[in-house]
Amino acid sequence: MMIGHIAARELRSLFLSPLAWSVLSVVELIIAYLFLSQVDEYARIQPQLTQMENAPGLTEVVAAPVFGIAAVILLLVAPLLTMRLVSEERRSGTLPLLLSAPVSMTEIVLGKYLGVMAFFLVMVGLILLMPLSLLLGGTLDFGLLAAQVLGLTLMLAAFAAAGLFMSTLTGQPVVAAVGSFGILLLLWILDWADSADAGSGLFAYLSLQHHHEALLKGIFDTSDLVYYLLFITTFLVLSIRRLDAERLQG
Amino acid sequence: MSEESLIGVEHLYRYFGTNCAVKGVSFEVRRGEVVGFLGPNGAGKSTTMRMLTGNLAPSAGSIAVGGIDLLEHPKRAKAAIGYLPEQPPLYRELTVNEYLTYCARLNRIERGRIPGALAAARERCGLADSGSRLIGNLSKGYQQRVGIAQAIIHSPDVVVLDEPTVGLDPIQIREIRSLIRELGGEHSVILSTHILPEVQATCDRVQIIHHGELILSDTIAGLQQRMQTSRLAIGLHRPPDIEKLRAIAGVLSVEPNGADRFHISHHPAESPAETLVLAAARENWGLYELIPERRSLEDVFVDLTTSEPASKEAA
Lengths: 250, 315
Description:
The complex is a heterodimer. Chain A is an all-alpha fold. Chain A contains eleven helices and no strands. Helices cover 82% and strands 0% of the residues of chain A. The longest helix of chain A has 34 residues, at 18-51. The radius of gyration of chain A is 20 Å and the shape is elongated. By secondary structure, chain B is an alpha/beta fold. Chain B folds into two domains: 5-225, 3-Layer(aba) Sandwich (Rossmann fold); 227-297, Alpha-Beta Plaits. Chain B has helices spanning 45-52, 74-78, 96-106, 114-124, 140-152, 170-183, 196-202, 220-227, 242-246, 273-282, 297-305, 311-314, and strands at residues 5-16, 19-30, 34-38, 60-65, 68-69, 81-84, 158-162, 188-193, 205-210, 213-219, 228-236, 251-256, 261-266, 287-294. In chain B, the strands form three sheets. In chain B, strands 6-7-8-3-9-10 form a six-stranded mixed β-sheet, with helices on both faces. In chain B, strands 2-1-4-5 form a four-stranded antiparallel β-sheet. Chain B has a four-stranded antiparallel β-sheet with strand order 12-13-11-14. In chain B, 40% of the residues are buried.
């Protein structure tokens, strides 16, 4: 209940700022361009596909790359949206409002997290509309599409958790943005280090992208799900601890 | 006083690293009292306020709000507190109504009672017509009012205001002060300030804090008493010989101040004012002024907060 109020305020403030709208429009524009070029590509190779057995469908050829690239673009964009969560409150002196209200630290952190997640879900919804529009003239593999949507959502949930944590560390939104971008990019490229060992090592397991790829192919593995849930929980718990420590240490 | 105690603070300590910002502060605030927390900058006022409202954890000591321990049951205790920090915690992108609704929800006011609480808080803070304005567009004085409205929206038992009149113009200051007096009727108010007349104008009781320690806790009447001195200023058109003044019973010393004015020190217990007037009338000195000198609150404050003995004042 209290979490909902905090989340609603967060979402409302996001939409009251030009930042959220400009991010939404730019992301839509870029992904729409990619989507169209992917549709073009499909039209070009369609004659060859018809001759193949087990030919990849629309969802594999069009939706998978779109969702894959969307994750990369959102990696760049998510820090801009999460950076203000706590650091802006700290900078403008509104944090005491939350801290002196009868609300627990967990409620504050979850409220903020769900607020920004609601925004990300709107974004995923808008991106999803593009492959869905293919239904006008073709058929989609809904199972695969669901896995891809789930993958992107989990990815964004992970971005949001890491971004929220970075935002609790500082009073400067830009520092929070740089920090979360750094940590996300590092986790993204981590498996490049042991790509030689066919991506089986520890680094590969820690890498965000590694877990995303399986879902893009439609492989739903609980270990991937567990990875994301662990990732999110870790950063949320760290955020709560961090805010609590601030109260203790000043 | 027999009324219930709303805030009980015991042996509160707060360290920042090795620096001790608040040292063993203990006090009590009863229902309906307005208590002024006075101290120079950096004395530990804001730190104490932040601890009272759960924004900062004390290093040692206990805080009870309405009998509920703030550290053990933070949620229940915080529900009884309204807090206006030094910088009002406002979301500039929201309108006054949106903001206050959010605050009401944060303080767990039931959905049905929110419009009533909103209207009441706006009415009290003179914001009745500003409900749909953006907070960012309001003047500083009005933003401060929104800050106070936020602190009283859930009718808390205790309202904590940290320097509520900083940066306001004199008329706004008067309005805010009368609002604070009004709040004192049903809430307890803790007010921190470094402006002394503000305490005189609004508070029932004053606590002076210096270097993290409470060095004075007194009623305003008690404070007034401290401000009395044993000095008179007298003005005479036709002054007699200074020795004649010295000879009057009760007079300890006389210092001339210009040609026809004198400062007279006397025993604190007996004022020679009456004898002086009689003598002046009898001998036709032309008395045109007789003022008991008072120390300003500033003097008392400086006296209490400077460690050097203020010998000049005592003379």
